[in-house]
Amino acid sequence: MLSTGFNVVGFNWMSSPAVTDLESIVMDWLGKMLKLPKSFLFSRNSGGVLQGTTCEAILCTLTVARDRMLNRIGRENIGKLVVYGSDQTHCALQKAAHIVGIFPNNFRAVATSKEFGFTSTQHTLEVHGYVLSLDTSSMG
Ligand SMILES: Cc1ncc(COP(=O)(O)O)c(C=O)c1O
User: Fold this and answer.
1) How many CB atoms sit inside 10 A of residue 101's CB?
2) Which of 59, 82, 101, 139 is geometrically suited to a Cys-Cys bond with 96, CB 3.0 to 4.6 A?
3) Where are the transmembrane segments (predicted)?
C-alpha cells in the first residue's frame, strides 16, 4: 500500500531511492516481527522484496523455485517438476505454474477436508519419479 501510494517506479535504488529505502525498512520490520534469523534482514546485507500483488509474488516464488531445481537437475528435465498446493489454494498458483512451464498434469491439488482442519498430510506428498519443486501453503 505504501509503495502504491508513492506512485513511482521503484525498480531499484537508481530509479527511486526513497521507495527502495522504504522497502528495506519495512521488510526489516516484517522480518523482525516474524522473528526471522538476522541474516534475512537488509541491515545484514540480505532482505526481501515487496510485490505489487499476490499473483506477482506467487509467480516470482515459483520462478525461483523452478530455476533452483532446474539448475540442480538440468533444464531438459522441466517435465519432471511437480507443484503441490492444497485444493484450498487460490487459482493463482495453478496459473503461475502454467506460466513458468510446469506441465499441466504436474500441478497437484491435494485434497483436504474439514475433518482434518484443511491440512494436507505428509504421506499425500509422496513423489514417484518426479521432483518436488514447490509445496505451497495457504493461510487466512
Ligand atoms: C491466497 C490468495 N492468492 C492470490 C490472490 C490473488 O491476489 P492478487 O489479485 O493480489 O494478485 C488472492 C486474492 O484474494 C488470495 O487470497
Assistant:
1) 13
2) 59
3) none
